[in-house]
Amino acid sequence: DGGITQSPKYLFRKEGQNVTLSCEQNLNHDAMYWYRQDPGQGLRLIYYSQIVNDFQKGDIAEGYSVSREKKESFPLTVTSAQKNPTAFYLCASSVNIRTEAFFGQGTRLTVV
Amino acid sequence: ELKVEQNPLFLSMQEGKNYTIYCNYSTTSDRLYWYRQDPGKSLESLFVLLSNGAVKQEGRLMASLDTKARLSTLHITAAVHDLSATYFCAVEVSGYALNFGKGTSLLVTP
């Protein structure tokens, strides 16, 4: 089935550790996105990529890093520099930047 | 900086009643999206509005877009419990990813 797969669904991290969230899509979409959701905050853009080997910072990129080496994959690394990483992370993709975005099921990250 | 404001942020309504959720945005855009999110779940696309005056309807929900007023509405007709969820509008500005409102949490009660 075509879709966007995020893994893991739940992730626990110790303070000071880096963790990587996976996002894979088989929709042949060029654009991919990472959003962070906190209670009552809506979705805030972390990074986005319009094409392979290119990505841009969103509104809250500090403490995060991404790569886009393959069209299908857009992993997000939450670094130790991110002071408050506990949140729900959503990956999305779209045909291009001007078309409807489809979302994965999300990864809930908790710092312990 | 693009701002997307939804109101109300919380809405409790009785089954069978009608209500409208509003989405205002601060800069020119001709593309607006509505999404639904159930608790702990991802976002599900509801409507794509691509031009001024666009109106889309699906069941008890109807969305419209007025690009001149920079306003979109999501109208709920004869609400039922299954519509309880959080509804987000998202605005696309050329060359940039979607900007989301904070969401409207809707609770439909008997």
- In the predicted model, the low-confidence regions of chain B spanning at least 5 consecutive residues are none
Number of domains of chain B: 1
Let me know the number of strands of chain A. Answer: 11
From the alpha carbons, calculate the radius of gyration of chain A and give it in angstroms.
13 Å
The share of residues in extended strands of chain B comes to: over 45%
CATH architecture of chain B: Sandwich
**H/E topology pattern of chain A:** EEEEEEEEEEE
| Poorly predicted runs of chain A | none
What report would you give on this structure?
The complex is a heterodimer of chains A (about 110) and B (about 110). With about 110 residues, chain A is mainly β. Chain A is built from no helices and eleven strands. In chain A, strand 5 and strand 6 (about 55) form a beta hairpin. The radius of gyration of chain A is 13 Å and the shape is globular. Chain B has a single domain (about 5-100), classed as Immunoglobulins (Immunoglobulin-like, Sandwich). Chain B has no helices and eleven strands. Chain B has strands spanning about 5, 10-15, 20-25, 30-35, 45-50, 55-60, 60-65, 70-75, 85-90, 100, 105-110. In chain B, strands 2, 4, 5, 9, 10 and 11 form a six-stranded mixed beta sheet that branches. In chain B, strand 4 and strand 5 form a beta hairpin. Chain B is globular, with a radius of gyration of 13 Å. The model of chain B has no long low-confidence stretch (mean pLDDT about 95). At the A-B interface, strand 4, strand 5 and strand 10 of A face strand 4, strand 5, strand 9 and strand 10 of B.
